[in-house]
């Protein structure tokens, strides 16, 4: 690629928005917007400079010319191959049609001779092309099955039959081509099928021009579709950018209002739970009262009062007895260690007395 000239010497494509639009049109494959070009003027100038050296696909001018020349050569080679291949397939179709007619309704000996000669010539030509690689490579290759092209050429039909076949071939080929052209014309415009042969020939002569014009129109529509696709891609990029901005704004709004609403919602929820808790406590208290009412009737309460009075009286008597015992015990504790020894001796005597009473009782019971 040639060196990029100074940006000051670059002729401006336009001014303002027009410049940006032309730059975007020159580079439809770039993911750019007019806002990007406006924010980066130096990059915009670089794209303007590059637009003088590359096309919309990114190829340089020199490479584009070489590519076009190569494409023309390729098209010429394709056309040459297509002509020979079309002629070969057309001759094969003619031979197949003859075989079908021969099996259906029979054919004349002259037709059989003509097509047999044609088929042998095609077969020999095909074998010669397979055995002679000189047209596709300069290297010597081993012979296939020990055969050479001359061996196959010896299998050609007699020269007289070949000459007769060539004299008739052009007429037969023209008729077959004419029939196929009429079929193509009927497919292209089905309403022309019932017209006269002269009118068909007239329309058939204009068919290549019509097909070429439609091909150009299809190419123009494809180019327009590519431009529309590039424009749609740019618009989609801008649309997605705007949508992302809107989503961010919505997220901030949702977050802000959600926090405010959440605080109020929490307060309402606390109030609701407090009221519900109070109601539950009231229900529990009511159930407890109901259970007490069902459990303690008037008769049971009277009996409980009598029992309580009796228990209170006994409790007072026991407390008085306890107090008396404690005062007696305290008076005994004044005597000290000697009293404890007497108490222990007294306890042993009491225990022995009880044991002897029990033994005497058991002895008296068994003696009877």
TrEMBL record:
**MF GO annotations:** microtubule minus-end binding
Q: Which GO cellular component terms, listed alphabetically, does the Swiss-Prot or TrEMBL entry include?
A: HAUS complex
Write down the Pfam families for this protein, in alphabetical order. HAUS4
By its UniProt entry, which InterPro entries does this protein fall under?
Answer: HAUS4, HAUS4_met
One GO biological process term:
centrosome cycle
Under PANTHER family, the record lists: AUGMIN SUBUNIT 4 FAMILY MEMBER, HAUS AUGMIN-LIKE COMPLEX SUBUNIT 4
Protein name in the entry: HAUS augmin-like complex, subunit 4
Q: Which organism is it from?
A: Paramormyrops kingsleyae
